[in-house]
Specification:
By secondary structure, the protein is α+β, with helices and mostly antiparallel strands. It has helices spanning about 15-20, 35-45, 65-80, 85-95, 115-135, 155-160, and strands spanning about 25-30, 55-60, 100-105, 140-145, 165-175. The structure holds flavin mononucleotide (FMN).
Length: about 200
Amino acid sequence: MTKPPESTVPAHPTLALLQQRVSHPRLNDPGPTQPQLAELYAAALRAPDHAWLRPWRFIEVSGDDRARLGEWMASSALSDDPEIPDKKRQKLLNSPMRAPLVLIAWAKITKHPKVPAIEQVLATGAAVTNLINAAHALGIGAVWRTGAPAYSPALKQALGMAEQDHLVGFIYLGTPAGEDKPIPDLNPADYVSQLPE
Ligand SMILES: Cc1cc2nc3c(=O)[nH]c(=O)nc-3n(C[C@H](O)[C@H](O)[C@H](O)COP(=O)(O)O)c2cc1C
């Protein structure tokens, strides 16, 4: 595919932020302040949302609660799979400690004649994306993770989620450690096409 022509659109600060976001897998203290978090949620809550069902939910996990979440992740993994290797269980135990704040993003699914569950999960994913971009705008590092715990029926139950609800991700937030990764050089033409004949 050939590269698209150079843009003739003037640089825009919001677009520059959106186009330059990267994930931050290594995050240190401090986490977001309460006023910063309020800004992140305000952005998340402006995600597109079919029939205004507001499916998104966020559980804040910080401080000692992170160890408790790690214990729940490890014990849920064991109850979902009694054969789980000990090394994997240990990794789960420690995983929430990788950032000062972990937001568990989940979709509370409502039965609706026009809005299937997948659209409610998509809306929650859009809310997470808004939140991560807002974090980037404020210089807060973020990374969206899932892994087996996101699909663990036992963990969902421990978190008070119903069977039909979906755990969309664990959003790790904090102060970026080290240099930003380079922005990958992706060509939109590789992902865009016209209607087939
Ligand atoms: C739904 C979802 C789940 C993800 N789960 C993980 C995960 O469990 N572990 C991980 O390292 N990255 C995961 N990622 C990818 C990272 O969030 C990140 O996008 C990736 O490392 C690429 O970095 P970038 O966002 O800077 O391009 C997930 C992304 C999405 C959208």
